[in-house]
Amino acid sequence: MPLCLSFIKILVWKAGFTVYIRKPEWLNKKINFNDCRQIKSLISDLNLHSVCQEAACPNISECFSRGEATFLILGKTCTRGCMFCNVDKGIPSAPDEEEPKRVAQAVARLKLKHIVITSVTRDDLADGGADIYARTIFSIRRQTKEKKVTIEVLIPDFGGNEDALRIVVRAKPDIIGHNLETVPRLYQDLRQGADYFRTLTLLEKVKDFNPQIYTKSSLMLGLGEEEEEVLSAFSNLRRAGCDFLSIGQYLAPTLQHYPVKKYFHPREFTYYQNKAKSMGFLYVVSGPYVRSSYRAGEYLPAVKTGLKNPGQ
Question: Which of 19, 38, 139, 172 is 20 to 30 Å apart from 239, CA to CA?
């Protein structure tokens, strides 16, 4: 397979020196910021945040051009320090009580049919921000009551607070997502403050509280995981009742973030997609540029119409 001449510079922290890894040709997506103007302008006008922008997502122009966006609520400063994430870390400001209404206004003005709502982790709040999530869902339902709008939330773990999770479940979003991100062996280096089994328990509890709500999770490849570990994570998710899965390539946002250990070929993503499908996931999206909210509007219609999950 020929390789392009561009390079990604990464730091090998433990070795203490800098190396260069070739960026493969299938990771040369171009961002057309002209496609983003309408949504970026509206988000700015309503004083909202998009995870597409804050997390430097490579799919930003593709999603924005389709009129899709993932709203980031509860501010843009996270209380945790995951080494793969580009969102700001630190001490966040108090929640904006009017934010749910503005998100609903944006959804209505953009005429969206499927919305993804996510947030930074707010360990500083007693409920982890669950009430704001619920109010955002209710506001969108009121604003779009005459339209068929489906709502997906990608939530933090709320520190294991089941009462907080119940608040979100009672608001009845169509999908509740929470990302596993990686295999348990890598959590200590990558996800300080998070817990692999707490994530699995959260997904399981959603089904206990309301079996009608679909659950979703996501894994990144290229962080140093082994195949057996990835397949074990798939199996763990299925035992927790997880319905939907997205699988993508980890791309280090900056030189200060955890380095890419391997670039996976698209054929390898197809392999993992087929493995996941064989385990019983209802819908799987897998590919180098896949992120947890990428093509989010596909999952529910595919399940409801009985469409077979296509390959990548």
Answer: 172
User: What would the two tokens of residue 34 be?
Assistant: 């002209």
CA dist list (Å): 119 to 23, 51, 148, 234, 275: 30, 8, 24, 24, 30
Helix or strand holding residue 221 (H, E): strand 214-221
pLDDT digits (tens, 9 = 90+) for 193-243: 899 999 999 999 999 999 999 999 999 999 999 999 999 999 999 999 999
Residue 161 near residue 127 (C-beta atoms within 8 A): yes
Between the alpha carbon of residue 66 and those of residues 35, 48, 78, the distances in Å are: 9, 19, 28
Over 111-122, what HEC string results? CCCEEEEEECCC
pLDDT digits (tens, 9 = 90+) for 259-293: 899 999 999 999 999 999 999 999 999 999 898 88
